Amino acid sequence: MKKVLVITGLVFLLAGNSFSNSIKLDENISLSSFIQNSYSKLQFDGKKPDFDIYKKGLIGYLNLKKQNKLSGSGLLTLIDFRLSSNKKRLWIIDLKQSKVIHHSLVAHGRNTGNEFAKKFSNVPNSNSSSLGFYITGETYFGKHGLSLRLDGIEPGFNNNARQRAVVMHGADYVDPSYTKAYGRIGRSFGCPSIPMKGHKEIIKKLANKSCMFIYYPDKDYLANSKLANEASAYDVLSKADFSL
């Protein structure tokens, strides 16, 4: 019955609903079926993110939400670094509305790879991308104009992000025209840079404690991440006490 209470709580948590009355529970529901149902309802005319990154991202999001580390925006940003940098590999999902609200190109660090991302680092001055879950911080104006601070919350993988000045910002090199000249979009010093078109609106929308997940099937990351690991994350969720 405890698992049933948890999953029902998750459903209403994402929907943004709050009920004090008792609710009839479905004893057959499970975390896996909840996530699958959430994915199947995701609205988008283009290519949705693959199910595996959505699943890991949603489990991490729910854990962070349970820990009161996120705002109530319901936004989840997914970046799939398995894909070519010439492909749109960033999705911003409004979980409350069950729809993708933005899909675009995104750069990786220059020492992470050329067209494809391959190597990742959390070390200062590595000029590499870092994997894992981030919580967005405040906006500021820097050399790239309006930018967004990112706080990496996975020790050993991205917790040096703020020290390294890994932020989200717009960049002219994140554009198909750059691909025509160089065979790939440009690369950053580790920042998930996005196209200049519309970057201000995107940065403002994501600011102040929304969830971002940068994914690649790195063996070390998958073996040690507590937020992306389904077994350890489920153990936390199964003990959660959500208020309906």
TrEMBL record:
The keyword Signal applies. Keywords: Signal. It holds the Pfam family YkuD_2. Residues 1-20 form the signal peptide. It comes from the Bacteria. InterPro entries: YkuD_2. The keyword Glycoprotein does not apply. This is Murein L,D-transpeptidase catalytic domain family protein.
